[in-house]
Amino acid sequence: METKLEKKYGLITAIAMVVGIVIGSGVFFKAEKVLTATGGNLPLGILGWVIGGIIMISCAYTFAVMATKYEKVNGIVDYAEAAMGEKYGYYVGWFMAIIYYPTLTSVLAWVSARYTSVLFGFNITGGECMTIACFYLVGSYALNALSPVLAGKFQVSTTIIKLVPLFLMAIVGTIVGISSGMTVQNFTTVVNEVNTANALFTAVVATAFAYEGWIIATSINAELKDAKKNLPLALVAGTFIIMIVYIFYYIGLAGTVTNEVMMAGGEAGAKTAFQTIFSSVGGSLIFVFVIISCLGTLNGLMLGCTRGIYSVAARGFGPKPKVFKQIDSETNMPTNSSIFGLLLCGIWLLFFYGANLTEPWFGFFCFDSSELPIVTIYALYIPIFIMIMKREKDLSVFKRYVMPTVSLMGCFFMIIAACFSHRMAVVAYLIIFAFVMVIGSMFVRKKENI
């Protein structure tokens, strides 16, 4: 039996969704990569975080403007359809369902398992870590599939929890670092000389993963109370909070250990930093909060992943739309879409392991699935922003031209940065992307009688 999604989320949950999906993994996962990419040059690293944040906020604001005009079942697909027509909306929805959602969700399952493994002393590429990753993936799916309301409450709770280690490091780390002189030392010492332009490009692409996910919050706009008012507020407020928290956390880290230690520590660098400030026991306890924050991010991503193919099927597109548009009458969840989403997550987790964590299984076709799909979504934003400037004549100059232009500049910057950062891996990814989209083209014909 098919039913409609109910209005069950409020503004606080929506803000928690934006903040919670984004904060919780990337800032821990990518802080070391940003520092390494910039050769331990903290000011350059902070500039990378600022540029990435500005791109995120400008894009979020532009979509927030669209959110006041369109409300259906999946924000980004709605906006693509409104700007470029049904077929473009379908291809965006197909990409989100087959590549974007499951790649990020699978990576987040591994990131959560990775920090759990660090806490217990397991190998981050070994069987223990991958077993934990699979458990987290299935557990997150079960929570969203069996009780969406409980998943929403979990999202709010983990958002509060995940801010604890970030705020503590930002405040205490900065105070201790200024007192000890560590902050000044790290800000004035460059570990390795690097090409500034290439380093900045690599750093910004790395921050893209840390900043990504806010667009997934638009997938609940059909389930959000007073969505035309609350979704724009959640997007703008949430993304601004994220940028400020990230920058201050990054500065706080500079007050704990030297840049050399952070760069060499990898995934253990954050744990070392927390233990340096809060003692071994206290640091380990706060590191538990870090793991919980990662799980909160995973939960939010899984929420979007379970609705991926549903957003396509609800419009009459894609394979077997009648099957994938079904909503469970008890849980109000798109059950078949959820199962398909979990399957895709498993496939992409297997790819991530074979391409990045062991001897490459796929030869030329190995690429970082934590970054390149994100850059793709910025490329897909470009036609949408152009059409806003062309069509939305009732908007003010600022909303119609200024912010979309800033957003476009950010999108082009991200694409160029990815090419410099990943080089031939971009070609490998584009071949896989093209293959997936060709398969999608087989189901582009809309089925009216479903």
From TrEMBL:
Cellular compartments annotated: Membrane
Protein name: APA family basic amino acid/polyamine antiporter
InterPro entries from the UniProt entry: AA/rel_permease1 (IPR002293), AminoAcid_Transporter (IPR050598)
UniProt-listed Gene3D superfamilies: Amino acid/polyamine transporter I
Keywords on record: Membrane, Transmembrane, Transmembrane helix
Keyword Aminoacyl-tRNA synthetase found: no
Regions crossing the membrane: 9-29, 49-67, 88-111, 159-179, 199-220, 232-253, 273-298, 339-355, 361-389, 401-420, 426-444
Primary localization class, coarse: membrane
